Amino acid sequence: MMSRRITEYIEAVQTNNIALNKEIDKRQGVQSQLEMILELLSGTDEGIFILNNEFFCIYNNAAFSRIIGIPEEAIPTLNLSENNILINAPLVDSLQMNPIWSGEIEYSLTKEEILFLFLRISKVKNGEDDYYIGNITNLTAHKQIEKDIYYLKYFDNLTKLNNKVFLDESGINLISGDTDNVGNHALILINIDNFRIINEAKGFDFGNKVLIALGNRLKTLISDQDVLARLGNDEFGILKAHVASNENLYEYILGLSKALEKQIAINDEELIVDVSMGISLYPNDANHYPKLLKTAASALNNVKANKGRRFEFYDKEINTLSIQKYELQNKLRNALSNQEFVLHYQPQMNMATNQIVGLEALIRWNSANGMVPPASFIAIAEESNLIIPLGEWVLENACEFGKKLATLGYQTPIAVNLSMLQFKSPYIGDLLQSILTKTNLPPELLELEITEGILMDNEDECESILSQFHAMGIQISIDDFGTGDSSLSYLKKFAVDKIKIDRSFIKGIPHYDNGTIAKVIIELAGNFNLQVIAEGVETPEQIDFLLKNNCHIAQGFYYAKPLDEDELLAFMEKSKRDNG
Asked: How many helices (H) and strands (E) are present in the chain, helices listed first?
């Protein structure tokens, strides 16, 4: 009996031993597999990690430590979420809604070094606890390769500008996206004239520096939506999207041409790089990009063949306009240096006494083809900034003549028109003081005329400038009043002495216009103690109307056209005799 029990016990122990051995073998197998897995994970380039529900790392491989730049022994002590290491609040919130997240992230290894990583992380549950299993892949080298490939494909290595491939693709995308042909886009090709001579005379290194300097200058002359590229050798291109109008494009080209005329410094040497430009427009000249490129190249070839012009439009109507303006600019420059400009003076008369109370200086261009009125060239002078030296010439000559009149006994103020550019020039006060001192003209004999547009451009700035003029003793009048957007109520704050009623409000009186607007202007001016001058007075009926409505000063053909100096002196002498 005892023997049987012992036998059964032994058999049970043996059975248990077999089961235990199997369990041990199984666990050893699992242990071996775990060790093998850990060994494999430790050798991978991907960083692998497991976090507990408090975001402390309970496992990581060597690659994880290496990628994030933190020693392995320090990692378990860090809360990755609190230290913003891979894990942040938005990511945690996302994992609460979706247990898997993957995407590219940027990781600051140091202040100077940013890594691009691909992170995949999963939220898993073990019993009641949450765990996070993730892996990171370092994409930085791959990103750099992509960047290098992109740079090689789309950039010019010398100038660091975009290249022709980028310009072409941008042009194709721009036009293909404009399915309704509603946009106006321009392609401007810019070629350096005689670049081969620069290379031959100064060497290729010097030539390369010229290309770099020109590219840098061009970068300052484009808007954010423009595309600038070096197309090869000595040629550049600008793709200008969404051009507002042909006139705006012309003005941009004019400014571009002028800016490129300025000297470039290379190796302490100053040189002017001459360029030619060909311009084509979509959809006027081409309905797809290859044709736009072809027509711009055609315009460029034409301008290089016709030496003397700096740019040409493929569109012949625009080109004719640009040629005329360009030629007129050159003629204006020469006219200024050749002293072809003269001043005429139109008297301002007291209608009640027939006495001369003022003069307006009006510029005329005595060209080889005859006398040219200001309406034909002032706008071009303003576009090209020639109005600055031209305006200075007018001021100085008008003041010299004013002094001459004073010497002859005529204390007659002379009014000179100021353009917007002159008025806003930072040195206008110094210029006026210099001219008054040079000519010895009393400041009360100088009057400056400005338009409403200037007055309303920047009220605070205008107020300051006008106060400066007044402090010098110079009188101020508002020219062509009533044609702009201002009102007499604004004049309250400005240091203004006179307003001139625009001729458009006078010419129809009394037969086609009852003079309502003129009456209102005169009455309101009186309320502000401003003197009123009526422009364009041509008939006795207009004089009667103005006198009845308390406007006493007139300027117009009824009294005299603009006169040259000799004619004016004769007119003033006669007026003096007639008035006793």
From this structure: 19, 22
Give the list of residues 6+ apart from residue 409 with CB closer than 8 angstroms, or none.
none
Question: At 440, which amino acid appears?
Answer: N
Give the per-residue pLDDT at 25: 61
Q: How far apart are CA 506 and CA 537, in angstroms?
A: 7
In terms of pLDDT, which residue wins out, 318 or 341?
341
Q: How far apart are CA 348 and CA 325, in angstroms?
A: 34
d(CA 240, CA 367): 37
Residue 245 to residue 243: CA distance in whole angstroms: 6
Cβ atoms < 10 Å from Cβ of 255 = 14
Residues in the chain: 580
State how far the Cα of 104 lies from the Cα of 82, in Å rounded to an integer.
20
Contacts of 69 (CB under 8 A, 6+ apart): 109, 110
Task: Provide the whole-model pTM.
Answer: 0.53
Whether the CB-CB separation of 48 and 57 falls below 8 Å is answered with no
For CA atoms 329, 331, 335, 337, give the dihedral sign: positive
The tokens describing 63, both together, are 């690659």
- Our CA angle for 141, 142, 144, nearest 5°, is 65
Please name the amino acid found at residue 517.
I
Q: Write 123-130 long-range contacts (CB < 8 A, 24+).
A: 123/95, 123/96, 123/99, 124/99, 129/52, 129/53, 130/53
Cα(176)–Cα(551) distance, integer angstroms: 63
Beta strand segments in 394-460, E: 414-417, 446-451
Return the SS3 of 492. helix
Strands 185-192 and 235-240: antiparallel
Q: Is 472 exposed, middle or buried (0-12, 13-18, 19+ CB in 10 A)?
A: middle
pLDDT tens, residue by residue, 178-210:
766 567 899 999 999 888 888 877 888 999 999
H or E element that contains 485: none
What backbone phi and psi angles, to 5 degrees, belong to 126?
-130, 105
Task: Compute the distance between CA of residue 185 and CA of residue 281 in angstroms, rounded to an integer.
Answer: 6
Question: At 314, which amino acid appears?
Answer: Y
pLDDT tens string 149-171 = 999 999 999 999 999 999 999 99
Residue written as tokens 């789309």?
Answer: 154
| DSSP H helices in 98-221 | 140-154, 164-176, 195-202, 204-219
* Residue (of 253, 235, 256) closest to 245 by Cα position: 253
> How does DSSP assign 33-69, residue by residue?
HHHHHHHHHHHSSSEEEEE-TTSBEEEE-HHHHHHHT
